[in-house]
Amino acid sequence: MNAIGDVERRTCSGQVEKPDTDGRVLPELIRDPQLSDRLRFGPKAVPTAVPLADFGYDSMRPGGKPALGNFQVLTVLVTYDGHPPLSRSASWYSTLVGRLGGTPPFTPDNPGSLLEYFAENSQHRFRPLRWKVVGPIRLAAPSAADLGDASGRGHRIVTEAVRQNALNLDELDLDADGDVGPDELLVITVENIPNFGPVNRAVNEITTATGRKVRLLCAFLGEGNSFTLFAHEVAHSLGALDLYGWPQGKSAQLTMMSTSVGGTQANQVACHLDPWHKLVLGWSEPRVFTDASRGHVVLPGVNKPDAPIIIHRPGRPLEFYLLEFRANRSDLQIGYESWVPGAGVAIWHVDTTAPGAARLQASSDPRYSEYAVMHVGAPNGQHGASTLWGAGAWHGLGWRDSFASCGVQVMEVSENRAVIKLGDPYPPMSGGGRAPEPR
Q1: Where are the strands (E) in 69-212, listed by range?
Q2: Least crowded by CB within 10 Å, which of 35, 81, 98, 261?
Q3: Which residue intervals make up region (Disordered) (predicted)?
């Protein structure tokens, strides 16, 4: 009550109507966002206590170790005889690999940083550090056999880089287990081969002078490759999978593990990894809901560790959905989302054979298989489409062998968040009817 005994009243719009001393009713906005959301969207959905390990949390481990802390990065610049030299300097590549404090938007003279990209994606849990940038080392032009044997070529490049620059690989045995593995050293090569197709391959085993075994994965890049390609190939060294499907291009611009040809060194666009990779790398802790959950859920931006949510059927954790809010941004808080197509809710369908092991399924091209981790795009739920779900959209979550059992309605999309409501598997105002067909 106020001083004259009048009771404050709440309007349906989330305001407080507060009488003043001469009887007028003055609206006052409610400033508690939780209260405001409850008034606008109804009760909150209640998360369930299901171990994230059931969904593969922290199961993708390079070299058998968590993708956490600092890994050292060796970058080798290679100039082959008979090809034009690299146009960028060693210092430019040093900035690209391991700079701190770069500010977007990124340009040729202000390149993005792999260190900051992975730090941003991992909530600063994983920060690859620039160990050495060497070269350009000069090598004889590769033969056709060399080009077809990346593992052997990588061995040749690393061995020559060690010899020409007196590198001591032994010092990288940080866990003192007698060898150097991909959990301690990441390798990037940049080769001056025209029209080079980037790949990630294991390097043939190297033995140091002291007998240590060096087992590495290498991101092979070419002159002029975009930042997206650098980040994509380095992510493979952590165990990340290609999610571009067949034909290529599925889930594009919503995960760095889709087709990553966006931009050039002159236009360095980027996007985050998908929430499944962040989950299995141990970089995020999604809130978990069942398909029977009802109520609204707030999805904050990707810079929050609990930003995504999981929706699953009780007792069946191998197939589930990951929902997240995504927005095209390139600022100091989120610098690596400039490639995202707009703003809205992303719905990822995940089908696994074991926790953290994505199922291989047939693709539309009978020659290839594809991983069953895909974005479900608006407006018709097409797997592999990149279109986000905007305010007012509704989608029923179907399962591989049964009808949909939960519906998701997007209630609000703003600059920094989205609000969804979990409900029955029928479109709003449909008056009942049949649930969506199983896929």
Answers
A1: 72-80, 129-139, 179-180, 185-191, 199-207
A2: 81
A3: 1-24
